[in-house]
Each structure stands twice: as C-alpha cells, then as structure tokens.
Design goal:
about 130 residues; alpha+beta; 5-stranded antiparallel sheet; 4 helices; globular
C-alpha cells in the first residue's frame, strides 16, 4: 500500500464582478511536495457565471484559466514562472489577488494518490448536483 502524503490545495474561483464579491468555483490546484505533484483541474459552468454577470467575457475567462495548468506543468510554455520549483509555482498561483480570477486560502489534506484527491476535490468543491 502506498504511503499517505500531505498535500495542499486551493479552489479556483471566478469573480465576475469583483466589487460584488460573488464567485463560482471553477477548479482546484493541488500540490504534493513528497510526490513532486502539481496539477490543476478546471471545469467551467458557464450558466452559473452568466447568472452572476450576463455580460461576462467567457473567452477572456477561459484564456486566463488555461494558463493555470500550464504554470502547474512548468517549463517554457509557462514563461518565467515555469522555471520555478513546483512548490514556488503553487505559492505563486495561490497568492491573494483582487481580480476576476481568485483562489481560496490553501488547505491541507492527506492521500495515497494526489490525482485521486484532486478529482475528489473537483467533484465536491466545483461540480454541482445535476
């Protein structure tokens, strides 16, 4: 049985109108230092976002969200941030911002499989019951 490892995660939020502070959870970033794991999973519910702001620029939102998995993967495609260690990239991604894309405070968990933990967090924190 694989050993359980600690991980940190943050929920990605879209805040269509920052002044109203209303948001929709659209993804999760998960970092497990012990397994050199840093990934993001993103699922956008466009109808929920449009309910908060019918004029939201979905193309702009999607283009910004697409950058998050690139930063997680690192390398040249992520620009200068991609040269940082996975832990440093996680901290950069989860730094507080007051923009249309924000993240929750970082939380901690334990799992044998960070990828399964990421899927579980998306299922519970992002998806709505259908």
């Amino acid at each position: 049985m694989p050993a359980r490892c600690s991980y940190d995660y943050a929920v990605i939020r879209v805040v269509p109108r920052v002044e109203r502070e209303e948001f929709v959870n659209v993804g999760v970033i998960l970092s497990c230092h012990e397994q050199d794991f840093l990934q993001a999973a993103i699922e956008v519910d466009e109808a929920r976002l449009r309910a908060l702001d019918p004029a939201i620029d979905m193309a702009l939102v999607r283009s910004h969200l697409e950058a998050i998995p690139r930063v997680c993967a690192g390398g040249d495609a992520a620009g200068p941030i991609g040269k940082l260690s996975p832990r440093e990239r996680f901290r950069w991604l989860t730094a507080p911002r007051s923009t249309i894309l924000q993240v929750s405070p970082a939380h901690t968990g334990r799992s044998e499989d960070p990828a399964k933990a990421l899927e579980h967090l998306v299922a519970t924190m992002v998806r709505t019951a259908r």
